[in-house]
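ugh ok fine here u go
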Amino acid sequence: MSHTDEPLGQQVLAGAQMLFVAFGALVLMPLITGMDPNVALFTAGLGTLLFQIVTRRQVPVFLASSFAFIAPIIAAKGEFGLP
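structure:
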């Protein structure tokens, strides 16, 4: 079943879920760690395009940053003073 076969309500719900996931991963996480959200948006888009090319669009996925990296990023900035 392709995504266009889904009822409109399910498509809207999935789109809203993706909006919240993308906001958290691409805006909130960089702000928490002191990084630039523009860099996160650019690299997520670039990574997603490369992933789609490599997998020949067989896997519908969007690549983004992760909250799992907050502690290591903050620790590295504190220890090494990384910008």
